[in-house]
Amino acid sequence: MSEKQINPLPLRLKQARTALGISQKQLGIQLGMEPGTASARMNHYEKGKHTPDYATLKAMADELGVPVAYFFCESESTAELLCLLEKMTEEEKADLVKKVTNTVL
Amino acid sequence: MSEKQINPLPLRLKQARTALGISQKQLGIQLGMEPGTASARMNHYEKGKHTPDYATLKAMADELGVPVAYFFCESESTAELLCLLEKMTEEEKADLVKKVTNTVL
DNA sequence: AGGTATACTAAGGAATCCTTAGCCTTTTAG
DNA sequence: CTAAAAGGCTAAGGATTCCTTAGTATACCT
Predict the structure, then answer these.
(1) B97 at the A interface (CB within 8 A)?
(2) What's the pTM?
(3) Which one, A4, A86, A103, B5, has least CB within 10 Å?
């Protein structure tokens, strides 16, 4: 019954960071962390040792160009779709909701 | 410069809980919390006083029938779509990614 | 009124995080 | 080759946040 209870955040964070080609420390600095602590803190988050609070989560999301919810997506396709949704208007998303609702239900 | 930095979790939690018509305390108990602490803990989360760790977040999501990422959606339409995505197969989601990609880009 | 249910809060012990101070490997420069 | 720099990573303790206890307040019901 080994119910794997994996926190997606470490993986998603690493994916988004490496996509930008910057180091853990540099990302932390860009988020406004002290240069002396940025490396350790970001590494803790990426290794799942610690969990960032919401303000840090939001800052990371903005810096990485993803929505906060992206960090908690369990599947790749959902993560990808969320990033696309962020680029759409409310109207476009409302339309998509209707379409998908008819398809699924 | 009032940068609205609202944590969506309290609102989303309340939305999903009231949709089920159960009390804060009862939800906490269903998550396996001690009956003596369930009320206070759930209220803290719903008022934004404290933030649940991932295990609690996952348990809440499962019990409420939403994905964990739902708690962090800033817009209603995105929150709604995420819940629909959870009911789709990986294949269906992959197809949707393609469609949306062509629409957006 | 009395009892119950629900939402909510203060305070302190318990748990987690942030910071300091490094180590270890790989890569780059000399 | 050697040294230095860069990136990833970790232990430990002070700083911060959370969990738990205990209780208040309001509304509803009998």
Answers:
(1) yes
(2) 0.94
(3) A4
> Is the sign of the CA dihedral B13, A89, A99, A104 positive or negative?
negative
Protein residue closest via CA to C1' of C21: A36
Q: Dump pLDDT digits (tens) for B27-77.
A: 999 999 999 999 999 999 999 999 999 999 999 999 999 999 999 999 999
Residue ranges of domains in chain B, CATH in brackets: 9-104 (1.10.260.40)
Determine whether the interchain pair B77/A97 forms a contact, defined as Cβ–Cβ distance below 8 Å: yes
- Tell me whether A94 touches chain B (CB under 8 Å): yes
Spell out the residues 6+ positions from residue A40 whose beta carbon is closer than 8 angstroms to its own.
none
- Candidates A12, A50, A54: best to mutate against B (most CBs of B within 10 A) is A54
